[in-house]
């Protein structure tokens, strides 16, 4: 369709040019209808050239036609004319140029026609048909430049991805309307402004074009994306310059909180929230707070912020002022900041001090939380501090009088007192007779027994007990108590109850390598030596015969009243079987039994449970020259018996050796009796053979 219009226009233009050549002088005045025709040929440009220039303007000019500003829209509407009128203007322009050049050239009609044809072709070649078809009016260069300057200065290119400055012109319940000098305002969800609850109309905000036109034709902006683009620059500047930034606490995480700072998720450690320990992290969620950027990891894009640093900065001056005024004995008001098992930390207004558990109360306590709680306000006294006053020792109990000062002057030794068991140790128990006044009952003063046991065997924590005051030192504020003194000393009449030789029953209480301790009654113990446990057995350790807690019979062997010692015997309660064995196994008595076991240098034989005899090797030879073997039964002669050491030695060989000796003696006697003055040679030979035989047997 455009091509048809162009062809018809060209024909009409050509016809007009021919007419212009014929009557150029006559149409000069008529052609001067437009302002553009009045310009001189040297400086003027054709309207078509201007239109071409207008068409070649920067994209900003194109945006002018795209915008819906009021002024631009009015100009565009007013300048649009019908296509027929534009054809007349083109004809007039051509005619005017022909008229301007006609008087100056003295040429033949043929040359003039040729030049007019060339100029017409050039004009048609450069003619801006697009502007002509769109109905765009010719605009003066000065007006065009002025308009372009205004556009460049104020108009925003929504195709760029740069961060733009916008102004909030309206706020709804869910969105903010932002003016960025575009063809229309943009919208941003209020969720992107959660970090700034004080947002209001007129505030300047940074935005970026997210969507030029959504399905409803709306311009969608993003404040969050714009903040992210510039966030790292801002964070780095804040870190380098130590600036204070606002952040929105989004949620709680392990070890701290997640904070939105300039659109970046930063980490707030729990230790950096406040100068005092935080027990409830959730109270900070969804709150906007001031922070200081303390650390940036560019490699992993991590940011660490601190709210504590701001508080510490404020407290630093206050801390210096307090430290400068600290003196020993000074009483200050503080707040319980932290409670531990060993004491309480008290905040004195930027300076922390420790109240040790022993300085909390004159009474003994197991844990500080028994008398104090967190955030409790209290008065404390300064006991001591180091040179730089960084460690301050405080006291609470020192604000009240010492309980020992209130102790009655009438209290004296040997008095009976009542109290409560507050602490039990291995060496004894502490009894609190008044608040803050304690006495020690040593374990040795709990029972008359000489066997030291644990204090827990006698008392428990919390027991109400009665005791006797053994010693009292008001200067050192110490006292010792005794419980066993409430009962009579069993050793006062020991000689009457346990005379030497008397028999009693006792309980096995303790073992030693040399004996066993037997308790006759509470506080009266005696020792049974290992040699006094059995008449017949060789005991290496008392546990071979007895166990703890056994009840056995004993006899008092010795009594030392001053040394409070008893010597007891257990075997003495029974008859000594070796008295009977001394008669039964007397020397030279003969007994028949079997070899029990072959041992070094001989063998053993067992006559009964208690009597085991030893047979030397040379006494194991039989009459035929062989030796006795294990299990072989034979007769034995007792050649040694010791009742004290329970030693018995027997011999089998002596049985027939004695007989041979007896035969020798008889033969010798017979020879002597029948010997005359002249002894026969045969008698002497027989006697020599008998003597040699006896020698061989021995």
Keywords:
698 residues, five-stranded antiparallel β-sheet, 15 helices, alpha+beta, elongated
Strand content: 25-35%
What is the radius of gyration? 65 Å
Instruction: Tell me, rounded to a whole number, the average pLDDT.
Output: 75
Sketch the major β-sheet. Answer: 5 strands, mixed, barrel
Structural class: alpha+beta
**Number of E-state strands:** 30
Into which percent range does the helicity of residues fall? 25-40%
Q: What best-fitting shape do the alpha-carbon axes yield?
A: elongated
**Unreliable residue runs:** 1-87, 103-107
Between the first and last Cα atoms, what is the distance in angstroms? 163 Å
User: How are strands sequenced across the largest beta sheet?
Assistant: 1-2-3-5-4
List the total number of helices: 15
Tell me what you see in this structure.
This protein has 15 helices and 30 strands. With 698 residues, it is an alpha+beta fold. It starts with a helix and ends with a helix.
Topology:
Blueprint: H1 2-22, H2 28-31, H3 47-55, H4 59-66, H5 70-79, H6 83-101, H7 109-126, H8 129-134, H9 141-154, E1 164-171, E2 175-179, E3 186-189, E4 204-211, E5 219-222, H10 223-241, E6 244-253, E7 256-261, E8 264-269, E9 288-297, E10 302-306, H11 308-324, E11 331-339, E12 343-347, E13 352-356, E14 377-385, E15 392-395, E16 416-425, E17 428-434, E18 437-442, E19 464-473, E20 478-482, H12 494-497, E21 503-511, E22 515-521, E23 524-529, E24 551-560, E25 565-569, H13 577-584, E26 590-599, E27 602-606, E28 612-616, E29 633-642, E30 647-651, H14 653-674, H15 681-697
């Amino acid at each position: 369709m455009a091509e048809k219009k162009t062809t018809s226009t060209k024909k009409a233009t050509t016809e007009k040019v021919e007419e212009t050549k014929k009557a150029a002088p006559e149409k000069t005045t008529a052609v001067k209808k437009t302002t553009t025709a009045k310009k001189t040929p040297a400086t003027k440009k054709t309207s078509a050239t201007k239109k071409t220039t207008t068409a070649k303007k920067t994209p900003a000019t194109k945006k002018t036609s795209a915008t819906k500003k009021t002024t631009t829209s009015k100009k565009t509407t007013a300048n649009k004319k019908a296509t027929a009128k534009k054809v007349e203007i083109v004809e007039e322009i051509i005619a005017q140029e022909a008229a301007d050049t006609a008087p100056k050239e003295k040429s033949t009609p043929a040359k003039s026609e040729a030049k007019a044809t060339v100029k017409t072709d050039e004009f048609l070649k450069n003619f801006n048909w697009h502007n002509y078809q769109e109905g765009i009016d010719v605009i003066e260069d000065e007006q065009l430049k002025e308009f372009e300057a205004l556009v460049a200065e104020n108009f925003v290119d929504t195709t760029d991805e740069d961060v733009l400055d916008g102004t909030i012109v309206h706020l709804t319940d869910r969105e903010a309307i932002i003016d960025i000098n575009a063809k229309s305002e943009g919208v941003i969800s209020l969720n992107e402004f959660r970090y700034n609850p004080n947002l209001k109309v007129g505030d300047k905000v940074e935005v970026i074009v997210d969507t030029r036109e959504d399905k409803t034709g709306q311009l969608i902006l993003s404040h969050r994306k714009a903040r992210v683009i510039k966030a790292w620059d801002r964070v780095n500047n804040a870190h380098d310059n130590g600036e204070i930034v606002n952040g929105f606490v989004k949620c709680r995480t392990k070890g701290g909180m997640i904070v939105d700072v300039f659109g970046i998720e930063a980490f707030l450690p729990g230790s950096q929230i406040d100068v005092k320990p935080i027990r409830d992290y959730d109270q900070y969620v969804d709150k906007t707070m001031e922070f200081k950027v303390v650390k940036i990891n560019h490699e992993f894009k991590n940011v660490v912020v601190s709210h504590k640093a701001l508080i510490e900065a404020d407290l630093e001056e206050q801390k210096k002022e307090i430290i400068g005024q600290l003196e020993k004995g000074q009483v200050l008001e503080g707040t319980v900041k932290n409670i531990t098992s060993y004491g309480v930390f008290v905040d004195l207004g930027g300076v922390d001090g420790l109240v040790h558990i022993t300085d909390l109360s004159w009474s003994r306590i197991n844990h500080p939380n028994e008398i104090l709680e967190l955030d409790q306000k209290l008065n404390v006294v300064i006991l001591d501090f180091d040179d730089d006053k960084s460690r301050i020792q405080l006291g609470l109990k020192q604000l009240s009088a010492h309980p020992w000062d209130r102790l009655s002057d009438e209290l004296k030794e040997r008095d009976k007192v009542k109290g409560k068991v507050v602490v039990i140790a291995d060496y004894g128990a502490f009894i609190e007779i008044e608040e803050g006044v304690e006495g020690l009952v040593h374990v040795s003063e709990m029972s008359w027994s000489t066997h030291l046991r644990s204090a827990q065997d006698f008392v428990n924590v919390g027991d109400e007990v009665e005791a006797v005051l053994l010693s009292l030192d008001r200067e050192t504020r110490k006292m010792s108590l005794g419980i066993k003194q409430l009962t009579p000393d069993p050793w006062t009449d020991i000689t009457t109850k346990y005379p030497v030789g008397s028999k009693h029953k006792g309980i096995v209480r303790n073992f030693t390598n040399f004996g066993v301790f037997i308790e006759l009654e509470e506080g009266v113990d005696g020792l049974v030596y290992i040699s006094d446990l059995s008449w017949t057995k060789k005991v290496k350790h008392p546990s071979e015969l007895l166990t703890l807690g056994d009840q056995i019979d004993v006899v008092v062997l010795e009594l030392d009243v001053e040394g409070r010692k008893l010597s007891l015997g257990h075997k003495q309660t029974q008859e000594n079987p070796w008295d009977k064995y001394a008669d039964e196994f007397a020397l030279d008595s003969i007994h028949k039994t079997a070899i029990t076991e072959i041992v070094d240098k001989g063998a053993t034989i067992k006559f009964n449970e208690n009597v085991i005899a030893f047979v030397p090797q040379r006494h194991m030879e039989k009459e035929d020259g062989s030796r006795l073997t294990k299990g072989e039964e034979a007769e034995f002669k007792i050649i040694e018996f010791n009742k004290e050491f329970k030693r018995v030695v027997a011999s089998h060989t002596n049985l027939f050796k004695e007989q041979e000796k007896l035969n020798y003696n008889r033969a010798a006697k017979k020879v002597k009796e029948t010997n005359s003055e002249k002894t026969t040679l045969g008698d002497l030979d027989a006697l020599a053979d008998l003597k040699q035989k006896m020698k061989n047997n021995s």
